[in-house]
Amino acid sequence: MRPLVLLWSCLMLQGYEALKCPKEISGFEGDTVSLKCTYGEEQRKLRKYWCKEIGIFVSRCSSTIYSGKDGQEITKDRVSIRDSPQELAFTVTLRDLTLQDAGKYWCGADRLGVDETFPVSLIVFPGSSRPPMPLDSTLAEDTSSVPSSHSSKSRVSIPMARILAPVFVLLSLLLVTGLIAFGSFILRWRKKAQLTLETQKNEKVHLPTLSTLMSSLNLPWL
User: N or C terminus: which one in the chain shows less Cβ crowding within 10 Å?
Assistant: First the structure.
């Protein structure tokens, strides 16, 4: 029977304890939440359902969704339900929560007479109140183990090396060219020095010979 009317007195009916669900579920806006309800062997073949409680003096069901056969998942708007008779449990999933979804709901098993039901409260928190996601511990350890200055140098070293490579090559070529020029200058200087020394030796040898010749001829010095 469709649960058009849910009487609070049904909580006291025999067999109610066979159906058990979480008393409260919660989530933030945009989240997806699920709850799992269990039941007894006598409810295995009954259709399970999920609905929102409305009404002030008389409680009624709204937006009811029933389970399918053979474990088939049934989806209606942003709600889905799947019954697993082998596990004696069924699961309800609510997606993309909104603040308007908050309220009281019922999990139930449809049967002749009074249905077996269980009240569930859904709390939806504003998305703005969601706490920041914690930093992954492994990432934090890796980051803390390496000094920030070292990491910055590592990022800079590769492009700087590429930029400075041509400069190093140019400086090396200039250094080699300077060494070659300096070597050539040293060689020329040594040759010139040797030539000067040889000239001086020849003059020293020539001068004594000339003076000796003039003395032997008794020629006066000019």
Answer: C
> What Cα–Cα distance (Å) separates residue 105 from each residue in 2, 59, 69, 187, 206?
15, 11, 23, 105, 133
**Superfamily (CATH) of domain 8-127:** Immunoglobulins (2.60.40.10)
Ordered by start, the domain boundaries in the chain are 8-127, 160-215
With 0-12 / 13-18 / 19 or more C-beta atoms within 10 angstroms meaning exposed / middle / buried, residue 40 is middle
pLDDT, tens digit (0-9, with 9 covering 90-100), for 34-66: 999 999 999 999 999 999 999 888 888 899 999
Q: Contact 92/79 with Cβ under 8 angstroms? A: yes
Instruction: Render pLDDT for 155-199 as a digit per residue (tens, 0 to 9).
Output: 444 556 666 777 777 888 888 888 888 888 888 888 888 888 877
